[in-house]
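Please review the protein record below. Let me know how this chain folds according to its tokens.
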Amino acid sequence: MMAKEKRKGLIRMRKVIEGKRYDTETATKVADDSYSNYGDLAYWSEEIYRTKRGNWFLAGEGGALSKYARSVGQNEIGGGSAIIPLTRGKALAWLEAHTTNSKVYEKYFTDMLEDA
């Protein structure tokens, strides 16, 4: 079960996955992205975090037509939220797709980048 509470319009999430604790309160938020407005069925919001030990994860939420949709009854779906652990490579791929801030790449992924 994931602990979830609203704080200043953002979601605080905490979950243990495969013996590792992921907590948006103690990890460093690196970037975020969203689509549409809260309340829209297709709405989603994601924040990517790095833990003190260097592990990466997404904290996200979304409406009934997002990847965060959950069953809420027989033949019914609603919005949901999740923490998704990421490998370092998947974190870089998410950042490439969702941010144009090149400082983020330089700070966390210098060893994975090469000149064109």
Summary: DSSP finds two helices and nine strands in the chain.
